[in-house]
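Problem 12. The chain below contains 411 residues. Write out its predicted structure in token notation.
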Amino acid sequence: MKLKSPVLIGATITTVLIVIIIGTTLQIPDWVYAILFFIAGLVITSLFSLNEKRLEQLHDLYRLSKISKELNLSNTKPYDMNEVTLMVKSLIKTDLAFYISNENEKVCISSDVKIAPELLRKSLSPLLNDSKAILIVDINKEERLEKNLLNEEGMKSLVLVPIKLAGETIGFCGGLNKKEVFKWRSVEILDKFCKQLAVLINANKEKKSDAEFNANIIRSLITAVESKNKIFAGHSERVALVSYEIGEKLAMTDEELKNLYYAALLHDIGRINLPDIRLIKDEDEYKLDPIEQHTVNGAACLPEGWQWEEIRHGILYHHERYNGTGYPEGLKMTDIPFIARIIAVADIFDAMTFLCPEEERVELDEALKQVKRTTGTLLDPLAVVAFEDAFEEIRAIYADYKIDNDEEENE
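Solution.
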């Protein structure tokens, strides 16, 4: 805080004291003292008022900086609408915080008040075409609002701020209060927050676009590899999707999930420079022949560098088995990189349900039973538990592939 206000207060008090001392000598009338004290009181009160406003502004900036730090920490992952509403609630001290997205038409609410998101959007819809921030002191006097729902919940004051990206309104953040009336500073601080949120949304869009572009290139390469043998068509994509579902159940980070997906997508890339491969059945699992060469070749396809190491491990070791009977190095248990243990589960499951000859395929539920039977021998127990937890999502993946295949056959 600047020293200007304390100095002025001190100067005012000093001036009053000097006048009092001189006044006793010069016999100044009482009414002059009264006017002097009145002026001094006004000066001191206004200065204290300015200090209080400055303290409020500093407090607002402090809260905004804390929330900005949270936004910056979350910019490596897709923003969460629930997190955003909690931030809004903390930022403007509101009874009900909300976040409305124009892109997916979702509404998220953070409040003890039970208002259905779709009803809140409907109530506020007359305001959602406005591209400017809105502050409504008394909702009952706002003709544009559908007041029934808001009145029933006893809402009095509203603040609504647009989230803009490249000149387009992509959503709104705001709050509703039952008693306390919002002040314009709530609009100002929420506007700053919405601008930072727009930057985060844009960064996530670009990141998603880049990731999708990279994934499409890899899928094109995998399709070219799998075209050598139709039996492998779609195998890598299914293994990647199943591996990703397992990873999500294991609460892996976004970076770990990305590496897992790419490693699973590329796990059979080593077949690109091998002769035609036939699929053989060996006791409890299906595997490729020649067995060891494609994992080593696949790992060698990746460029050097630490950033590729985890993906390389997934490709190189996805045929290692928990009891040490796998290849290429015969690793066992936790010596096998975790990413490879996850891919192994997805790979074996797809071999039993889709990859093997049609007469030897088993239904999804039977394949799940067979996977569970190999827990602790061929497959990592933790990965199998996560696989079972994700089984409904995995079932949906295979339902989509079955529909796609049926359509191709009909054509």
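Discussion. Residues 78-204 form a domain with the Beta-Lactamase fold (CATH 3.30.450.40). Students who got a different answer should revisit the alignment rule from Section 12.3.
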